[in-house]
C-alpha cells in the first residue's frame, strides 16, 4: 500500500487543507531547488529597480505566484494527455497577504493550461512571453537558481539577478570549484605554455560558465568532432553536471545531519497505533530512500568522471564525446534526483533551524514526511 493510501486510510485528506498548510509553510521561506517563491522575491527585492526592469513574468499576478516542481500522483495523471513523472505547478494565492487562505493551481502542460493561467491571472494583455517562459521552466528538472538563470538566458529571456537565490559568493565559489575540476584539462590543452596556462585556464572557465557557447570553446569542439547544436547542448549539460558536483559537496554533510534529525524528531499530539506505525515506517523509508538516491546520483556522476578521466589520462576524446551526446538525457535524471534531496535538506533546515527544538505536531509531521516521500523516485517499501 502506498504512503498516500496509508494516509487516506488513517484519516481523510482534504487537498485544500493540505494546500493551505503548505502555503503557510512557504510564506516565510525563500526559493529552493523545488520551490520558486516569487512572493518572497517581491517582498525582498520589489523596490529594487532591476526587479521591475527585468521581471521573470510581466503579468504581476503571475510574478507573485509560487512555482513548484511537483511529482505527479495518481490523482493528477488524468490532467495530462501523456504520462510524465513530474510537472511544473503554478500556485496563485487567493490573498497575497494571507497564504493560509489557499490558492488556484495549474500544471504547465495539462490540458488547456494556457487558458487556465490567463484566467487565473486576470490577464487582459498579451501573455505570450510569460507562457513561453513557463514552457522553458518546465523543460528543466529542477529550479536550481544557477541552472534556471543560465537556461533562461540561453533562450533569450533576460531576468534580474534578484529572482535567483545563487549569491555572488556562491557563483565565485563555483568558479573556483570548476577551475579545480578542469585543471588537468587545461594542462593537457596548454602543455608546454608555462605561466600562460593560468590565463588560458581563466578564459576556459569563463567560457564554460558563460551563457553562450562561443569561439573560445571551438578547439574543444574540434577535438571532440561534434556538430554545433549537439555540442552546445552537451556543454550546457556538462555545466549542469559541474554545478551539481559543486552543490553536492555542501549537500552531503547536510543530508547526513538531516537523516539523523528525522530519527530524533519528537512528534506531539494524539497518535493511535496505526498512526504511530505509519510515522515510524515513514522515518525508516525516508532515511533509506535518501541513501538510495545518493547511490543513484553517484553512479550518474561516475559516468562523467570516467569519461573525463579517459580524456585526460589516456588522451581518448571518444568517451567524453559520447558523454556529451548523452549528457542532456542524463542531466534531466540527475537534476530531478538532486532537486529532491536538496528540497528535503533545505526545507528541513528552514522548518527546524539548528539549535532549536526538534518538535512538531503529528499532523504537520505526516504532511512533511508525505511530501518528502512523494518526491523520492525510488520505491519506498520496507
Would you spell out the secondary-structure blueprint of this structure?
Elements: H1 3-10, H2 15-26, E1 35-37, H3 38-45, H4 49-53, E2 66-71, E3 86-93, E4 103-107, H5 113-120, H6 128-139, H7 145-154, H8 168-181, H9 183-189, H10 196-209, H11 218-224, H12 228-264, E5 266-268, H13 273-314, H14 317-351, E6 359-361, H15 362-375
Parallel strand pairs: 5-6
Antiparallel strand pairs: 1-2, 2-3, 3-4
Helix pairs in contact: 1-13, 8-12, 12-13, 12-14, 13-14, 13-15
* Total beta strands: 6
Structural class: alpha+beta
| Gyration radius, rounded | 22 Å
H and E string: HHEHHEEEHHHHHHHHEHHEH
Counting DSSP H or I runs of 4 or more residues, the number of helices is 15
The chain-level mean pLDDT equals 81
Characterization of the model:
Helices cover 61% and strands 7% of the residues. With 382 residues, the protein is an alpha+beta fold. Strands 1-2-3-4 form a four-stranded antiparallel β-sheet. Strands 5-6 form a two-stranded parallel ribbon. 32% of the residues are buried.
Amino acid at each position: 500500500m502506498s504512503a498516500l493510501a496509508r494516509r487516506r486510510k488513517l484519516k481523510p485528506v482534504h487537498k485544500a487543507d493540505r494546500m493551505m498548510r503548505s502555503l503557510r509553510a512557504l510564506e516565510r521561506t525563500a526559493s529552493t531547488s523545488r520551490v520558486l517563491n516569487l512572493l518572497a522575491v517581491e517582498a525582498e527585492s520589489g523596490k529594487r529597480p532591476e526587479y521591475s526592469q527585468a521581471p521573470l513574468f510581466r503579468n504581476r499576478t503571475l510574478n507573485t505566484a509560487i512555482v513548484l516542481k511537483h511529482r505527479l500522483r495518481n490523482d493528477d495523471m488524468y490532467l495530462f494527455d501523456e504520462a510524465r513523472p513530474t510537472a511544473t505547478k503554478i500556485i496563485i494565492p487567493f490573498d497575497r497577504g494571507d497564504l493560509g487562505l489557499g490558492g488556484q493551481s495549474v500544471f504547465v502542460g495539462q490540458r488547456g493550461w494556457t487558458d487556465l493561467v490567463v484566467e487565473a491571472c486576470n490577464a487582459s494583455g498579451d501573455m505570450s512571453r510569460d507562457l513561453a517562459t513557463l514552457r522553458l521552466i518546465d523543460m528543466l528538472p529542477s529550479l536550481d537558481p544557477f541552472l534556471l538563470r543560465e537556461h533562461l538566458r540561453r533562450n533569450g529571456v533576460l531576468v534580474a539577478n534578484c529572482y535567483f537565490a545563487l549569491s555572488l559568493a556562491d557563483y565565485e565559489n563555483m568558479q573556483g570549484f570548476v577551475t579545480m575540476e578542469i585543471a588537468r584539462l587545461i594542462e593537457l590543452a596548454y602543455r608546454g605554455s608555462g605561466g600562460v596556462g593560468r590565463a588560458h585556464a581563466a578564459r576556459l572557465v569563463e567560457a564554460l560558465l558563460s551563457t553562450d557557447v562561443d569561439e573560445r570553446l571551438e578547439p574543444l569542439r574540434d577535438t571532440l568532432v561534434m556538430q554545433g547544436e549537439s555540442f552546445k547542448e552537451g556543454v550546457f549539460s556538462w555545466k549542469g553536471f559541474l554545478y551539481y558536483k559543486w552543490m553536492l559537496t555542501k549537500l552531503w554533510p547536510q543530508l547526513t545531519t538531516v537523516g539523523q534529525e528525522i530519527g530524533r524528531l519528537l512528534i506531539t499530539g494524539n497518535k493511535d497505533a496505526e498512526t504511530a506505525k505509519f510515522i515510524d515506517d515513514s522515518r525508516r523509508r525516508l532515511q533509506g530512500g535518501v541513501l538510495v538516491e545518493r547511490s543513484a546520483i553517484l553512479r550518474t556522476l561516475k559516468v562523467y568522471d570516467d569519461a573525463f578521466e579517459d580524456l585526460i589520462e589516456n588522451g581518448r576524446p571518444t568517451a567524453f564525446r559520447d558523454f556529451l551526446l548523452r549528457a542532456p538525457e542524463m542531466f534531466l535524471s540527475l537534476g530531478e534526483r538532486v532537486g529532491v534531496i536538496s528540497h528535503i535538506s533545505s526545507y528541513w533546515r528552514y522548518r527546524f533551524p539548528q539549535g532549536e527544538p526538534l518538535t512538531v505536531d503529528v499532523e504537520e509531521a505526516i504532511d512533511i514526511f508525505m511530501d518528502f516521500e512523494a518526491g523520492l523516485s525510488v520505491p519506498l517499501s520496507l
